[in-house]
Design goal:
The protein has a ten-stranded antiparallel β-sheet with strand order 1-12-13-14-15-29-25-24-19-22, with no helix packed on it. A six-stranded antiparallel β-sheet has the order 18-27-26-23-20-21, with no helix packed on it. It has a five-stranded antiparallel β-sheet with strand order 2-3-4-5-6. Strand 5 and strand 6 form a beta hairpin. It is mainly beta. The protein has one domain: Beta-galactosidase, Chain A, domain 5. It contains two helices and 29 strands. Helix content is 3%, strand content 37%. The protein binds alpha-D-galactopyranose. Alpha-D-galactopyranose binds next to strand 26 and strand 27.
Length: 378
């Protein structure tokens, strides 16, 4: 397949590419949507123009991604009756994101999740990070990767893709090393959204990149996610202290409200978990790029989400801190538990927990990880 980087010099909205023209099954495809990628100007941040890209596959599913924060702003997919709505929480305009919502759809880095007291050591050297969550550092600091404007390149290939690049400077938010990060999003015709993360550094640094989409498979922010059925292929999780820092223990889920090894409704035991779910699950060691690590199913809409990942963990967060104070673009308050996150990751506070899989990236090495989300309807 030829791969071309499209040059976008102008414009309100341009269809960059269409799979239908080259298709051998022209007649069948004519019935379908034209796959492609388009772009609109979306405002300004940091003195730069921000854009919103729309990836459309030939089944008409659409994912919108902004170069502000590498943010997935919507993912429109039909329910079992054919009604289309977005299965992730987000806003229609940039202003919603500039108001600093809690990481809606964002690319999170340099270190997703928490680092205790914002401190870690590499060799003899102690590094001090920006503190932004009680006494801890969370999700990359005061201005993490979710709040910067990335360089974007739409890719013309067999499926629509968007590649984002960001150079995080040595010392940014306290992290060592110039870190060059690339995140690529692609939407397949069988409704699989693949996110591929790559990075290189010139000094040893911790790195833990993730996406912070809040899913609500009902497609309606008036509904909570509590009746949805969840399976997580994890026999263990990492218990936390009152500031959500892991204690270091890897604990069995059996007999606890953290046991989602068999599909269970999210709400069935949430009251037994102080504050709601906001925990790292230790995925069982399998090839989770082939077999789903997580399956989420909504009986109401018939939508099913399968999550595939190379990461060893996933933070299952039930939108506990959402309290209705933020409204979506239709003016509807975003209440507690109306979205849930599945943040694929290395474990929180790994730089201070030698027994956890390492998050250190050394000069000359390549950080490479893939997470895929597949949506179907039954
Ligand atoms: C993550 C954290 C939560 C919370 C959200 C953002 O998921 O684990 O505790 O900080 O981000 O509100």
């Amino acid at each position: 397949m030829k791969k071309t980087i499209a040059v976008l010099g102008f414009g309100y909205m341009i269809i960059l590419w269409s799979s239908c023209q080259n298709s051998e099954k022209k007649n069948a495809d004519n019935m379908k949507a034209h796959a492609g990628i388009s772009r609109v100007d979306w405002g300004k941040a940091d003195g730069k123009t921000v854009h919103l890209y729309t990836l459309t596959n030939n089944n008409g599913a659409q994912v919108k991604i902004s170069d502000y924060g590498g943010t997935i702003t919507s993912w429109v997919f039909p329910d079992k009756k054919g009604n289309k709505s977005s299965i992730v929480l987000g806003f229609d305009s940039l202003s919603g994101y500039l108001a600093k919502p809690p990481y809606f759809g964002a690319t999170v880095g340099r270190y997703g999740n928490r680092i205790a007291n914002g401190k870690f050591k590499i060799g003899d050297q102690t590094y001090t990070l920006a503190i932004n969550n009680g006494k801890n550092a969370l999700h990359g600091g005061l201005k993490g990767f979710d709040k910067v404007v990335w360089d974007a390149a739409p890719i013309i290939d067999s499926v629509p893709s968007l590649t984002l690049n960001y150079l995080s400077k040595d010392g940014e938010e306290g992290y060592p090393g110039n870190l060059n990060v690339t995140v690529s999003f692609s939407l397949s015709n069988d409704n699989e959204l693949t996110i591929e993360y790559n990075a290189i550094t010139d000094k040893t640094t911790p790195i833990n990149l993730t996406n912070h989409s809040y899913f609500n498979l009902t497609g309606d922010v008036n509904n909570t996610v509590l009746s949805q059925l969840l399976m997580i292929d994890a026999d263990h999780y990492t218990p936390v202290d009152t500031t959500l820092i892991p204690t270091g223990e890897i604990k069995a889920v059996k007999g606890t409200p953290f046991d989602f090894t068999k599909s269970m409704s999210i709400g069935s035991r949430i009251n037994e978990v102080v504050g709601g779910y906001d925990h790292n699950f230790v995925l069982n060691q399998k090839n989770h790029l082939q077999e789903p690590a997580v399956i989420l199913y909504d009986t109401l809409s018939g939508r099913k989400l399968e999550l595939f990942t190379m990461e060893p963990g996933v933070q299952f967060y039930t939108g506990n801190f959402l309290d209705g104070s933020i409204k979506n673009s239709q003016g509807i308050p975003i209440r507690q538990h109306t979205g849930m996150c599945l943040e694929t990751q290395h474990f929180p506070d790994s730089p201070n927990e030698p027994s956890f899989p390492t998050t250190l990236l050394n000069p000359g090495d390549k950080y490479h990880t893939i997470t895929k989300y597949k949506v179907t309807v039954q």
